[in-house]
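Throughout our pipeline, every protein is held as a single compact record rather than as scattered files. Such a record has a labelled line for the sequence and another for the backbone structure tokens. This encoding replaces a full spatial description with a residue-level series of whole-number codes. For reference, a complete record is included directly beneath this paragraph.
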Amino acid sequence: MGHITNEQVRIHIGDIALPGDLAVPEVASGLVLFAHGSGNSRHSARNREVASMLNGMGLGTLLFDLLTADEDVGMSKRFDIALLGERLKAATVSVAHLTRERHLRLGYFGASTGAAAAIRAAVDSPPHMRIDAVVSRGGRVDLAGHEALCQLRAPTLMIVGEADPEVLKLNARATAWMPCEKRLEVIPGATHLFEGPGALEQVGKLAGKWFCQHFAAATQPAPHGHAG
């Protein structure tokens, strides 16, 4: 795996600065930006555990606060998917220099409401910052909206706990609208928070495999005679 560089960063958006934690292995194939669920922050223990597993698989990670402390007091902005998606896009821009210098592919990992923000941001990403893969953990992908789901092109993996029937139903319905490569993985016995033994470890393994596979595919040159 080699050395991992850990750095505290600030993502500046207008008059606000959102704190983040950036971790990049010495040899990395891509960078995964995390979008946490409502009521959580970059300190989410579950996301940090998954991020650590991704680091061990040669993937960089950025965990950051989507909202300021004042914004997070009320409920309205926690569920403002358009705002959260814009914050995720701004964070992506903030690491553009790193991804260019290190030739890193880009991916999003969204949990709960953060998954909807990840889909919105992936749909709106400019060509020079293409999102090559998205992973949702217990995600409310339905909150991204029908229009965004129908426009999603990034290969998307949705991981849902077997004991989370409502979210499982919403994810299954969303797959019918998504034109991209997609997969719905159900973790046996897992709840919405993936608290059971080994459940979160399965999430990390599935997510890491998905990112590594699609980052590698995005790096391959297009065959002769085909547009890239």
